[in-house]
C-alpha cells in the first residue's frame, strides 16, 4: 500500500488523535493535519498539503457551515512560503487563514456561505486542509 500523508501513521499522530497539550471539546475530535511531534521535519514543496473531506448534500435551508479550530504553525517554513489553512467546497477555497510560524491561534468561527450550493439534491465535497503556498 502506498504511503500517503493520512495513511502513514493514521490514528497515532494524524487524523483523529490526541494532540500534545490540548483536549478536544466534548463531542468533537482533534484532527491533526501533518504532525504533532516537535522537531519532526518533512520535505515539502509549494502546493503540497494534507486534506480531509466529506461528501454532503446541503439542504435548501442551509446557509452557512461553521468550524472552530486550533492552528499551530511549524517552527519554520522555507523562504518565500507560508502554511495556509483552507476550508473548501468542491475544491474551491471558501475560507483561508495563514498559519503563523511558531504561533498557536484559536479560530472560533470560520464561516463558509453555502447558499449557492444548497439545492437539496447535488452532492458537494467539503474539505479542510493545510497547504504550503507562496508568500
Q: How would you portray this structure in words?
A:
With 135 residues, the protein is an all-beta fold. The protein has a domain at 42-134. The protein is 0% helix and 45% strand. It is built from no helices and 8 strands. Strands 3-8-5-6 form a 4-stranded antiparallel beta sheet, with no helix packed on it. The chain has a two-stranded antiparallel ribbon with strand order 1-2. Strands 4-7 form a two-stranded antiparallel sheet.
Instruction: List the quaternary state of the chains.
Output: single chain
Contiguous helical run count:
0
Low-confidence regions: 1-8, 10-14
Instruction: Round the mean pLDDT to the nearest integer and report it.
Output: 79
CA-based gyration radius: 16 Å
Overall shape: it is globular
Strand order of the largest sheet: 3-8-5-6
Q: Determine the fraction of residues in helical runs and give it as a percent range.
A: under 10%
What structural class do you assign from the helix and strand content?
Answer: mainly beta
**Strand runs, count:** 8
Question: Percent of residues in beta strands?
Answer: over 45%
Distance between the termini: 34 Å
The largest sheet, given as strand count, sense and whether it forms a barrel, is: 4 strands, antiparallel
State the order of secondary-structure elements, H for helix, E for strand: EEEEEEEE
Task: Give a short summary of the structure.
With about 140 residues, this protein is mostly beta strands. The protein has strands at about 15, 30, 50-55, 65-70, 80-90, 90-100, 105-115, 125-135. The protein has a domain at about 40-135.
Amino acid at each position: 500500500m502506498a504511503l500517503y500523508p493520512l495513511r502513514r501513521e493514521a490514528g497515532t499522530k494524524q487524523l483523529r488523535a490526541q494532540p500534545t497539550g490540548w483536549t478536544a471539546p466534548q463531542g468533537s475530535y482533534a484532527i491533526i493535519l501533518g504532525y504533532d511531534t516537535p522537531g519532526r521535519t518533512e520535505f515539502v514543496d509549494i502546493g503540497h498539503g494534507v486534506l480531509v473531506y466529506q461528501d454532503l448534500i446541503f439542504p435548501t435551508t442551509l446557509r452557512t457551515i461553521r468550524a472552530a479550530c486550533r492552528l499551530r504553525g511549524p517552527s519554520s517554513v522555507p523562504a518565500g512560503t507560508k502554511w495556509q489553512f483552507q476550508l473548501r467546497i468542491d475544491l474551491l477555497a471558501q475560507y483561508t487563514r495563514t498559519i503563523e510560524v511558531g504561533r498557536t491561534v484559536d479560530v472560533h468561527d470560520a464561516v463558509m456561505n453555502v447558499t449557492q450550493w444548497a439545492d437539496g439534491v447535488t452532492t458537494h465535497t467539503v474539505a479542510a486542509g493545510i497547504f504550503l503556498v507562496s508568500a
